[in-house]
Amino acid sequence: MKPIDVMLVDDHRMVLEGLRVLLEPLEFVAVTGTCTTAAEVLTALQAHVPDVLLLDINLPDQNGVDLCLQLTQAYPTLRVLALTTLNEKSYVTRMMQNGAAGYVLKNASPEELAEAITRVHAGKKYFSDEVQELLLQPTPAAPEIPVLTRREKEVLALIADGLTSHDIAEKLFLSALTVETHRRNIITKFGVSNTASLIKLAAQYQLI
Amino acid sequence: MKPIDVMLVDDHRMVLEGLRVLLEPLEFVAVTGTCTTAAEVLTALQAHVPDVLLLDINLPDQNGVDLCLQLTQAYPTLRVLALTTLNEKSYVTRMMQNGAAGYVLKNASPEELAEAITRVHAGKKYFSDEVQELLLQPTPAAPEIPVLTRREKEVLALIADGLTSHDIAEKLFLSALTVETHRRNIITKFGVSNTASLIKLAAQYQLI
DNA sequence: CAGAAATTACTGGTTTCCTGGTAGAGGCAA
DNA sequence: TTGCCTCTACCAGGAAACCAGTAATTTCTG
């Protein structure tokens, strides 16, 4: 039986060499190439598309999340298996949305790597146990960040810088009464009743 | 001539295998052991102290910065060479303060690794080029964060939550005039003139 | 082109904040 | 025991913010 054709992608040569060594005893796996950059991957796949690609997320010239999308669209038979230290839900979901077939952490044992390669090659998904636990945890709801108009954003920034409505009016060539109206509208949108909690929320939402 | 006795420490086996492979061709280097945790290192060094220890910073059971101090104090002949992806000045300075003889990034070539090992074994220091550049960059001055008393912190938090001085007085069982005085003192300490910029700075300094 | 949204500005009022000053009591450290 | 710091509280007044309402003009979008 033809062994699974595997290509390795990681920005560190020592990781690539280590992977080679760990996969070498597996008779059903054949490591046919290694790359340290996204550019190298793109060039290599023009000549030869492997069955499975072990793909790090941190690459020097392009992040692995975007590269994954690019590759899985261009080569539908390719199975991408993320191999990373980044155990974060947002990375996992984005990689899967971009066509990855699996997500493995770098602390995986050779046996786990072998199983992951086998499963994704067979058309199945594979996740490290830790990653599965992570995915099962509820995602806190994103705060309802108010939508501000262009002028409101300007006024908010100046409020946060400590300017009074009178100061802001002078700076923006407006009437102080106009600024007061903008101020009122901003406060209403944030659902607060004074400047202190307005600025606190704006800082939390990184609007200032 | 006796080859340099080197021990490798990293939480990922694939990195350890990769390092082995990269160092194997070097006749003046002998890899005598590998460890994936701080506990393993401590046990191994009781039996045998190498000349040079390649030490990752992220370990599962103890961080490499503290381990470095522990090891260099217990084994004065041991040369510790940090090997990490963490290219941050604070890590570099802390590792060197804790007795490390060198700091190398994981993107180093085998030649660079060889040179680093040789130099630290000879009693010299070694830094990757990127690390040297990093060390030469000026460190931005830390902001002068005001020191608040216990009561001031309480009042500040409540101000940030949008309470008026009257509300705060009720909540803390104080006179509103007392709260006004605390407020004035806080504003003076921050060197601002209104609540908006007070709360913005407090958020920046992570005091609320 | 029409309708909606944004922007501008106003009236009149109340509430809150800020400023400058003062001072006594309690706790703590030298 | 003394001196300093923290906390408490007060006075008076002006500045600023907040509140509720209204409305015309400009810009944007479908």
UniProtKB/TrEMBL annotation, chains A, B:
Keywords: DNA-binding, Phosphoprotein, Transcription, Transcription regulation. This is Response regulator transcription factor. The modification 4-aspartylphosphate is found at D56. GO terms for molecular function: DNA binding. GO terms for biological process: phosphorelay signal transduction system; regulation of DNA-templated transcription. The keyword Ligase does not apply. Residues 141-206 form the HTH luxR-type domain. InterPro entries: CheY-like_superfamily, NreC/VraR/RcsB-like_REC, Sig_transdc_resp-reg_C-effctor, Sig_transdc_resp-reg_receiver, Tscrpt_reg_LuxR_C, WalR-like. It comes from Hymenobacter wooponensis.
